[in-house]
Specification:
Largest sheet of chain B: 3 strands, mixed
Number of domains of chain B: 1
Strand content of chain B: 25-35%
Largest sheet of chain A: 4 strands, mixed
Radius of gyration of chain B: 12 Å
CATH superfamily of chain B: BolA-like
Low-confidence stretches of chain B: none
Shape of chain B: globular
Number of strands of chain A: 4
Structural class of chain B: alpha+beta
Largest interface: A-B, 15 and 14 residues
Radius of gyration of chain A: 13 Å
CATH class of chain B: Alpha Beta
Shape of chain A: globular
CATH topology of chain A: Glutaredoxin
Order of helices and strands of chain B: HEEHE
Number of helices of chain A: 5
Oligomer: heterodimer
CATH topology of chain B: GMP Synthetase, Chain A, domain 3
Mean pLDDT of chain B: 92
Chain lengths: 109, 77
């Protein structure tokens, strides 16, 4: 368990923006993950992604890491931002773009 | 067993008695819901904290029996 936590911690701290999702950005395997990807694409930021379906330890571990029961989960500069509903609410209010600006996240190339 | 919209609303109101809960059955299949929860208990809390309060009210059902619940939260105006 602590190994998994260390792995997750390494991932969230080595990517400015990282999405834990089901599937990949090109082939999301769930509607919520697909929506999260679409929001990040709209924001035009560079982001990493982790397909939890390929790794059962991370799939379970990420839920306790953030104390959040569902996937997708977005992390910006090591901080848990929320799931797809929160991403959507923040995006619609312009808050997500603001957060990404404030954290000086790199744009997608 | 999937949960009914009433089950979901009831569990949320038990934990947040003042909550206004609107549930929409998105696909008409009793499995994909959207919930909009308004409660004074959310005042001063971050979105993540507000959502966690609702997930807690649902007592571990979220991510399990309830895999597809779109959630939005608000403080009463």
């Amino acid at each position: 368990m602590s190994d998994t936590n260390a792995r997750i911690s390494e991932i969230v701290n080595s990517n400015d923006v990282v999405l834990f999702m089901k599937g990949t950005p090109l082939f999301p395997q769930c509607g919520f993950s697909s929506r999260a990807v679409a929001i990040l694409e709209h924001c035009g930021v560079a982001y990493g992604s982790v397909d939890v379906l390929q790794d059962m330890e991370i799939r379970q571990g990420i839920k306790s890491y953030s104390d959040w029961p569902t996937i997708p989960q977005l992390y910006v500069k090591g901080e848990f931002v929320g799931g797809s509903d929160i991403m959507m609410e923040m995006f619609e209010a312009g808050e997500l773009q603001q957060l990404l600006d404030d954290k000086q996240v790199a744009k997608a190339s | 067993m999937p949960m009914t919209a009433d089950d979901i609303a009831e569990m949320i109101r038990q934990a947040l008695p003042d909550a206004q809960v609107e549930i929409t059955d998105l696909a008409g299949d009793g499995d994909h819901y959207a919930a909009h929860v308004t409660s004074a208990a959310f005042a001063g809390k971050s979105r993540v904290q507000q959502h966690k309060m609702v997930y807690e009210a649902l007592g571990g059902k979220m991510g399990g029996v309830l895999h597809a619940l779109q959630l939005t939260t608000a403080v009463p105006k």
